[in-house]
Amino acid sequence: MTELPGFGLVERARALGALIAGEADEIERTRRLTEPVVSALIENGLYRTLLPQSLGGAEAAPEVFMQMLEEIAKLDASTAWCLGQCSVCGMIAASLDHDVAHEIFNTPPGILAWGAVAHEARAVEGGYRVTARWDFASGSRQASWLGAHVRIVSADGAPRKNADGSPEVRTLLFPATSAVLHDVWHAIGLAGTGTDSYEVSDLFIPERFATFRDVPQALREKGPLYKLGTGSAFSLGFAAISLGVARATLDAAIALARGKHQSLAAKAMRDNAAVQGLIGRTEGDLRAARAYLHATANAMWRELTVSGEFSEPHRIAVRLASTWTIQQSAKVVDTAYHMAGATAVFRSNPFERRLRDMHAIAQQIQARDTHFEDVGRAILSAQPS
Predict the structure, then answer these.
(1) C-alpha distance from residue 131 to each of 42, 180, 355 (Å)
(2) Is the separation of the CB atoms in 179 and 198 below 8 Å?
(3) CA-CA distance, 275 to 254, in Å (whole number)?
C-alpha cells in the first residue's frame, strides 16, 4: 500500500499528548498557546503539514491532516484550532513566487495567520497601500506573518474588477511586526486560540507579497492538494477538530459511568440500562459522523488525484459532510455532558471546557445552517440521472 503524503504526522501528534494535556489549563488561563506547545508543534513539523514539498513541507493528504487535528483536539481544542487555521493559511504558498514563499515559510517560525475578508487596499506603484483592521485571526499570537483578504481599488479609488465583473480580491501578506494586535478574544470557548484583531496604518505591501486565494489559474504548485482550496480544507479540518472534542468528551463520560454511583440511584451508572442505551446510541452517532466525514474526504481525494480537478459535486459533498459532522459532534458533547450530571459543572473535571469549546466551534461559519440550504439547492437544481 502506498503511503499517504504526510505519513508519520499523526503519530507525532499522538506523541505530544502528555505535553499538550499538561499545558491545557495554562493555555485556557492565559488565552494563548504556551511556548512549550508551540515549540513542540514547530519542532515536529506539524505547522508545515499543508506546505508544498518544494518548500520542505509535508503537502499531506486531507486524511492525514484530519487525523492529526483530531488527535490534538482530544487533548486541547484551542491548540488544534490554531494548528488547523495556520496550516490551511500556509496553503497560500502554492500561489506565491517560490522565493517569496521561502522567505515567509522557511524563516522561523514560518507561521502565517489571517482574519476575515474585509476592507480595501489601494494599488500604487510597485504594490499596495492599506489602512484597516481585521478580526478573527486565530493563531495570530504565534504567527510571524499575517495576511489580509482585501478588495483592490485603483489609484483613483475605482474598484478593480475581475473578467466576470466581480470585485478583485487579493490576499496581501506582511510581517506580523508591521501590525498592531488587539487583545479582544474574551470568548466562552476556544479561549486559548487568541483569536484577536490586527491593524495596519498606511502600510505599503510590495506586489510580490500579493496573490489570489483559491484561484486555480494563480497556482504555481501542481499538487492536487492545492486544487482543493483553503475553503474546503478549513471545512474538513474544523470538522475533524469537532470529532476529537466529541471523542474525548464521550470517553470521559464512559469512564465516569464505569465508576460513579449516582446520588439516590439504586444502581451504579454502569449497571443502569438507560445509561447503557444512551452510551450505545451516542457511540453509534459519533462513529457514523466520523465514518461519513472520512468517506467523503477520501472519495473526493481519490477523484482529485486522478482527474486533477476539484469538482462542484465534491465541493458540495465536503460542505455537507463537514457541517453535519460539526453539528452531530455538538450533540454528542451535549449528551455526554448531561450524562455526567453535577460532576460536569466543575472546572476540575473534563467536561465543561469541552462543552464550551464545542459550542464555540459550532458557532463558526463552517457549521452554519445555511450550508444545508446551499446543498439542497444544488441537489434540486441537478438534472436527474
Answers:
(1) 31, 12, 38
(2) yes
(3) 10
- For 266-284, give the secondary structure using H, E and C: CCCHHHCHHHHHHHHHHHH
Largest Cα span, the chain: 79
Q: What are phi and psi of 147, to 5 degrees?
A: -125, 155
Mean pLDDT in order along the chain per 10 residues (385 residues): 75 97 97 98 98 97 98 98 98 98 98 95 97 96 97 94 93 98 97 97 98 95 96 98 98 89 65 91 98 98 96 96 98 96 88 97 94 95 76
Structural contact between residues 143 and 38, judged by C-beta atoms closer than 8 angstroms: no
Q: What are phi and psi of 132, to 5 degrees?
A: -170, 170
**pTM here?**
0.95
CB of 87 within 8 A of CB of 47? Answer: yes
Whether the Cβ atoms of residue 194 and residue 326 lie closer than 8 Å to each other: no
Q: How many residues does the chain have?
A: 385
Q: What is the DSSP letter of 22?
A: H
How does strand 112-114 pair with strand 145-153?
parallel
- 32 contacts 139 by C-beta, under 8 angstroms: no
